Amino acid sequence: MTFCKDFLWGGATAANQFEGAYLEDGKGLNVSDVITVGSHQSPRRISLEMDEKYFFPSKKASDFYHHYKEDIALLAEMNFKSYRMSIAWTRIYPNGDDEFPNEKGLLFYENVFKELKKYNIEPIVTISHNEMPLNIVKKYNGWTNKKVIDLYVKYCEVIFNRYKEYVKYWLPFNEINNLLLPLSNLIQGGIYLKGTVYFNDQKDEPELRLNALNNILIASAKAVKLGRKINPNFHFGTMICHITRYPRTCHPDDNLLVQKNDLIHNCMCSDVMLKGEYPFYAIKYFEKSKIHLHLNDEEKQILKEGTCDFYTFSYYQSITESTLKFEDETSGNIMGGIKNPYLKETDWNWPIDPVGLRYTLLKVYDRYRVPIMITENGIGCIDKLEKDKTVHDPYRIEYLRDHIIEMKKAVEDGVDLIGYTAWGCIDLVSVSTGEMKKRYGFVYVDADDYGNGTYNRYKKDSFYWYKKVIASNGEDLD
Ligand code: BG6
After folding, report:
1. Which residue out of 19, 131, 175, 435 is catalytically annotated?
2. 376 is annotated as an active-site residue
3. Which end of the chain has less neighbouring CB within 10 Å, N or C?
4. Active site residue 175
């Protein structure tokens, strides 16, 4: 067998895209709650108030809050060994700076963990996945304020203590490196600058944004240090959005461009989180960009002491870059780049590149030599619920199969891969567009982009396929 015998096959979701019940049992508003629905053609709108003339998809999402028992039973039926989920910070601390945690919120996740335990499904918990309390944005300007580090650590302390018997794997932040882009100002940085209207086109002050990222890295290291004291058996992982980059031509300048962008965008955060300090190229990058990072000696020491144990990343696509002009080849991809003539794309213009996954696995394992998990991978597609309530999704099976084949090759190459959690294992709301119709799941949720539907769950063809894949530990991919 190629994969190790306790390989963590599973799937992943995030509270803000999946739970709904946005004000139930004491939950407060978070940054994702106030982003409207959009589409591939029309961007999502942002403001700090919820103007009722728009639809806000996180309000009900997939309604996991009321379906968790049924949903976890479906995951168990697929033989899941692991389930990556996030805790909504605002269920625990509705405003982020409350004196005491919200017991009803704590109880909800305890029930979820008990349910997972019943089926021997290992939780992998993201502590912050685009779920900062909105009050922190308004009152503290999000992560730009160092006081927020303590608010986050206080939240961590509560959940570490409460769930220490249930949870071993923790990911302090989702796709931490995305704050290198203005796109993540609100959802990750908690930064909202006046004049921002659209999610894809946010006002930006790089110095503020990168200092917010620096504070997040410090908070992550503090959480790791604290977690290890509470339970030495906790395992902490990075979570990097790895956008694998290729040069469009063999011109040396194209290669240098890709190398530079790869270091900053893909490697910098994980270098800090696994090696315990900012790498030389990052220090030069900040100097050249005239960005002053507020990082004192005590914080540098914290970064050293709070390094992670394993590397996780999301992998959906690669992008292609060039210093030369390739007119008419601009990709419609949210991450930028130009078209790669060798790759097909999804309906949302995300290039499909399974071989890039093998390449990425080799690269990151060579760089860090720690166990690796792929904590997001998948394809967003338009599915059709047939009259007989089936969904035929050969395109999803093909995408996942091709990626698993490359994972296998990477393991044969020597990479220590310990888990794979396919994104959106049950349909949920898309981050980039707010749509429900951009579906990733093995399970269909009967709801449209505007919250109409029964919210009943239906198994897709990929459900039966993935069940077989897990049962055979990745040997039977047909
Ligand atoms: C990752 C996020 O960036 O990509 C997820 O961690 C997100 O939250 C996923 O849903 C897929 O992106 P999208 O835009 O298709 O939802």
Report:
1. 175
2. yes
3. C
4. yes
Give CA torsion, residues 378, 384, 388, 392, to 10 deg: -40
Residues 6 or more apart in contact with residue 15 via CB below 8 angstroms: 85, 86, 87, 88, 91, 129, 131
Backbone angles phi, psi at 443, to 5 degrees: -120, 130
Q: How far apart are CA 311 and CA 97, in angstroms?
A: 30
Amino acid 134 reads L
Average pLDDT of the residues of the chain: 97
Q: E strands of 187-298, at which residues? A: 235-236, 240-241, 244-247
Domain boundaries, the chain: 8-471
Tens of pLDDT, residue by residue over 89-108, are 999 999 999 999 999 999 99
In order of 109, 177, 259, 263, the CA distances from 256 in angstroms are 46, 20, 5, 11
Nearest residue to 319 via CA among 250, 213, 245, 218 = 245
Cα gap 313→361, rounded to integer Å: 10
Question: Which strand (E) or helix (H) includes residue 221?
Answer: helix 206-230
Length of the chain: 478
State how far the Cα of 218 lies from the Cα of 238, in Å rounded to an integer: 13
Task: Over range 117-137, report the average pLDDT.
Answer: 98
Best residue among 30, 239, 317, 376 to mutate for probing ligand 1's pocket (most ligand atoms within 8 Å of CB) is: 376
Instruction: Please state, in angstroms and rounded to a whole number, the distance separating the CA atoms of residues 290 and 321.
Output: 25
Residue with the two structure tokens 């203590």: 161
Does the beta carbon of 175 sit less than 6 angstroms from any atom of ligand 1?
yes
Rg (CA), the chain: 21
Instruction: Give per-residue pLDDT as tens, 382-406.
Output: 999 999 999 999 999 999 999 999 9
Tell whether the model's pLDDT for residue 328 goes beyond 70. no
- CA triplet 201, 207, 210: central angle to 5 degrees? 80
Question: What pairs with residue 423 in β-bridges?
Answer: 12
For residue 375 and ligand 1, the question of a CB distance below 6 A is answered with no
Q: Where are the alpha helices (DSSP H) in 78-133?
A: 89-92, 103-118
Q: Is the distance from the beta carbon of residue 241 to the nearest atom of ligand 1 less than 6 Å?
A: yes
Residue 12: other Cβ atoms inside 10 A: 29
- AA letter at 320: T
What distance in Å separates the CA atoms of residue 285 and residue 34, rounded to the nearest whole number?
Answer: 33
* Pocket flag, ligand 1, residue 429 (CB < 6 Å): no
CATH class label, 8-471: alpha beta
Burial of 348 (0-12, 13-18, 19+ CB in 10 A): buried
State pTM to two decimals: 0.98
